[in-house]
Amino acid sequence: MPGEWIFIPDKDGQIEHIYREKTDKRILKKNPWRDLRLHGTVLVLVVIAELIGTIRIPITKDVAITIMPLIYTIILGLAFYLVKPIKWIHRKQARIAEGAMMLFIGVLIAKLAVSSGQSISLIFEMGPALILQELGHLATILVLPIALLLGFKKEAIGMTNSIGREPNVAVVVDKYGFNSPESRGVFAIFIIGTVIGTIFISFLVTFSLSFIPLHPYAYAMASGVGSASMNAAAIGPTLAAFPGLETQIEAFAGFSNLLSFCVGIYIVIFIALPLTEKIYNWLEPKIGREALVPEKEDE
Amino acid sequence: MPDLIDGSENVSVHGIFNWILLLAIFSVITVIANYLGYKHPIADSLVGMGILSFITLIGVWLERELPFNISSILYISVIGILIAFPGMPTSEVVLYYVSKVELLAIVTVFLAYVGIGMGKSWDEFKALGWRAVVITVLVIAATYYGAAIVAHIVLVLTGVPAA
Question: What does pTM read for this prediction?
Answer without folding.
Answer: 0.68
